[in-house]
């Protein structure tokens, strides 16, 4: 047995340098970061609603719940939750199956209950088995996808929704054909605003800006948004021909009264529980939302400058509680979302206060800021996401993975390509398959140590088993036993093994029974005998 010494924390133990002891101590960084996340999240919430075939405010409601509620229930300090692009096709299929959005809301509530149960049952341990190479590949792929997907928005030539992260888009285009089509309809005003925004963001990353303390407190994205609104209004007056078209501006619904606000909320239709496909819809939403959340928080932990670790079981329960509330209020399903979380980290967020603040801003914007926010060009927000995307897929990351060898680089690059040409979950599944292959290969090669006597020297062939021998090691052990020459002395030694799987013991027992026929003198040391079927 492996014994782990527990070290109790004492008052004299110091926290890692720069790590805030409470959310309130880092407000100067969290509030600007929350503002950036809000600016990125708002069009995403609206776009995902549009792509899901749901009421426009359903995505905003989900974003509010993700920020205001899930941020405090989750153990992640930097993850931002809300509606996710990966669930759009599932919501569309669920609408077709159940017949109404209200029925889907009931499924979202039940899915949340399933997630809470999964967290209680400690199913979050699955998140600990995602290889680092696959997580890094996922981050790099999301960065590349962000760059490719935002190019049409940057040049004002894409009416597709803002966070269509899949290769095959809901408008019939794919990632590359959308760029080709966009090049044929470039909007001069959007391009001008987009390029100016991108230039400002890049300048904001320069050392000359970071040396000025007062400027460090202002997020570059805020400067970009204010500048973009000003430029857009200036073009309206000075050069109407360059005016940015309405479909390339943020489009918040017009809520002018309390009645408009309350009318935006839909209620679950509980009669849908009787529908034969209801359970499958709820279970599908729960599983996909859970996997996306676990993948996202693992990726966020990799990006966290303080290297904090998110408790995965608590994350499942937090996301489940969020889905219960979102479904009851008329919102889309919620997951932890890597795009918003990356924007949070990139903007300097330190604690959960940044995500909470972004949720509050979503609520305030819905009630009071509609007229201002509807002047924000998508091209300015695209510039923000282009910078986020580049930081996720820097060339140095590829160099690092290459230097680690093929067993790290191949799952990394395969994950990237698979996500680029499919979607997040399918791509990660392909990457995991490659990663598992290398795990199996490593197990195959590390199950034992084989030593043979030198020529013309007496002594047995010594097969010494490793400390942990699982069923994954069976193939390599059977192979080496089959290849042993006849008429030899063999010692199979398990004295250093703390665990030997039954499948391996059965294979050794089969070898023991067949050894006399091959003239092999066999000695077993610390190898338990098992009953083999037929003997």
UniProtKB/TrEMBL annotation:
<feature type="transmembrane region" description="Helical">
    <location>
        <begin position="376"/>
        <end position="392"/>
    </location>
</feature>
<feature type="transmembrane region" description="Helical">
    <location>
        <begin position="56"/>
        <end position="73"/>
    </location>
</feature>
<dbReference type="GO" id="GO:0016740">
    <property type="term" value="F:transferase activity"/>
</dbReference>
<feature type="transmembrane region" description="Helical">
    <location>
        <begin position="104"/>
        <end position="121"/>
    </location>
</feature>
<feature type="domain" description="STAS">
    <location>
        <begin position="450"/>
        <end position="535"/>
    </location>
</feature>
<keyword id="KW-0808">Transferase</keyword>
<dbReference type="Pfam" id="PF00916">
    <property type="entry name" value="Sulfate_transp"/>
</dbReference>
<feature type="transmembrane region" description="Helical">
    <location>
        <begin position="182"/>
        <end position="204"/>
    </location>
</feature>
<keyword id="KW-0472">Membrane</keyword>
<dbReference type="InterPro" id="IPR001902">
    <property type="entry name" value="SLC26A/SulP_fam"/>
</dbReference>
<feature type="transmembrane region" description="Helical">
    <location>
        <begin position="31"/>
        <end position="50"/>
    </location>
</feature>
<protein>
    <submittedName>
        <fullName>Sulfate transporter</fullName>
        <ecNumber>2.7.1.69</ecNumber>
    </submittedName>
</protein>
<dbReference type="InterPro" id="IPR011547">
    <property type="entry name" value="SLC26A/SulP_dom"/>
</dbReference>
<feature type="transmembrane region" description="Helical">
    <location>
        <begin position="216"/>
        <end position="235"/>
    </location>
</feature>
<dbReference type="GO" id="GO:0016020">
    <property type="term" value="C:membrane"/>
</dbReference>
<dbReference type="GO" id="GO:0055085">
    <property type="term" value="P:transmembrane transport"/>
</dbReference>
<feature type="transmembrane region" description="Helical">
    <location>
        <begin position="351"/>
        <end position="369"/>
    </location>
</feature>
<dbReference type="InterPro" id="IPR036513">
    <property type="entry name" value="STAS_dom_sf"/>
</dbReference>
<keyword id="KW-1133">Transmembrane helix</keyword>
<feature type="region of interest" description="Disordered">
    <location>
        <begin position="1"/>
        <end position="23"/>
    </location>
</feature>
<dbReference type="InterPro" id="IPR002645">
    <property type="entry name" value="STAS_dom"/>
</dbReference>
<feature type="transmembrane region" description="Helical">
    <location>
        <begin position="128"/>
        <end position="148"/>
    </location>
</feature>
<feature type="transmembrane region" description="Helical">
    <location>
        <begin position="412"/>
        <end position="440"/>
    </location>
</feature>
<feature type="transmembrane region" description="Helical">
    <location>
        <begin position="316"/>
        <end position="339"/>
    </location>
</feature>
<feature type="transmembrane region" description="Helical">
    <location>
        <begin position="277"/>
        <end position="295"/>
    </location>
</feature>
<keyword id="KW-0812">Transmembrane</keyword>
């Amino acid at each position: 047995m492996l014994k782990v010494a527990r070290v109790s924390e004492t008052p004299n133990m110091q926290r890692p340098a720069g790590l805030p002891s409470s959310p309130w101590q880092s407000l100067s960084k969290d509030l600007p970061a929350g503002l950036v996340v809000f600016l990125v999240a708002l069009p995403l919430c609206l776009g995902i609603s549009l792509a899901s075939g749901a009421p426009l405010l359903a995505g905003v409601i989900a974003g509010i719940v993700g920020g205001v509620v899930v941020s405090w229930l989750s153990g992640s300090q930097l993850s931002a939750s809300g509606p996710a692009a990966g669930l759009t096709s599932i919501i569309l299929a669920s609408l077709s199956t159940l017949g109404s959005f209200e029925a889907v809301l009931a499924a979202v509530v039940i899915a949340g209950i399933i997630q809470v149960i999964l967290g209680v049952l400690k199913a979050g341990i699955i998140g600990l088995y995602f290889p680092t190479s696959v997580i890094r590949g996922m981050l790099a792929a999301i960065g590349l996808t962000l760059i490719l997907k935002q190019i049409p928005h940057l040049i004002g030539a894409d009416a597709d929704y803002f966070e269509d992260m899949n290769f095959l888009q809901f408008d019939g285009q794919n990632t590359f054909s959308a760029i080709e089509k966009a090049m044929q309809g470039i909007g001069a005003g959007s391009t001008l605003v987009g390029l100016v925004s991108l230039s400002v963001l890049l300048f904001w990353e320069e050392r000359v800006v970071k040396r000025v303390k007062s400027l460090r407190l202002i997020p570059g994205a805020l400067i970009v948004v204010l500048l973009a609104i000003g430029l857009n209004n200036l073009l309206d007056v000075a050069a109407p021909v360059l005016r940015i078209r309405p479909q390339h501006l943020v489009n918040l619904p017009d809520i002018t009264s309390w009645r408009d606000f309350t009318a935006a909320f839909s209620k679950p239709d509980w009669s849908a529980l009787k529908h034969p496909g209801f359970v499958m819809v709820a279970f599908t939403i729960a599983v996909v939302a859970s996997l996306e959340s676990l993948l996202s928080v693992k990726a966020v932990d990799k990006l966290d400058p303080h290297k904090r670790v998110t408790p995965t079981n608590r994350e499942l329960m937090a996301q489940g509680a969020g889905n219960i509330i979102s479904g009851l209020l008329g919102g889309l399903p919620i997951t932890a979302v890597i795009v918003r979380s990356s924007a949070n980290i990139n903007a300097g967020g330190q604690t959960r206060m940044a995500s909470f603040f972004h949720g509050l801003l979503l609520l305030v914007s819905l009630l009071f800021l509609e007229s201002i926010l509807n002047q924000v060009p998508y091209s300015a927000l695209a510039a923000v996401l282009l910078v986020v995307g580049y930081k996720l897929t820097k060339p140095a990351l590829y160099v690092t993975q290459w230097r680690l060898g093929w067993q790290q680089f191949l799952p990394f690059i395969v994950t990237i390509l698979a996500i680029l040409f499919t979607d997040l979950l399918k791509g990660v599944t392909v990457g995991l398959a490659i990663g598992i292959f290398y795990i199996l290969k490593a197990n195959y090669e590390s199950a034992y140590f084989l030593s043979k006597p030198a020529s013309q020297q007496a002594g047995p062939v010594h097969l010494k088993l490793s400390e942990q021998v699982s069923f994954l090691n069976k193939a390599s052990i059977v192979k080496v036993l089959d290849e042993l020459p006849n008429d030899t002395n063999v010692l199979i030694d398990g004295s250093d093994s703390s665990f030997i799987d039954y499948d391996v013991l059965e294979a050794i027992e089969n070898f023991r029974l067949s050894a006399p026929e091959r003239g092999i003198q066999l000695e077993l040391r610390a190898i338990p005998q098992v009953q083999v079927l037929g003997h």
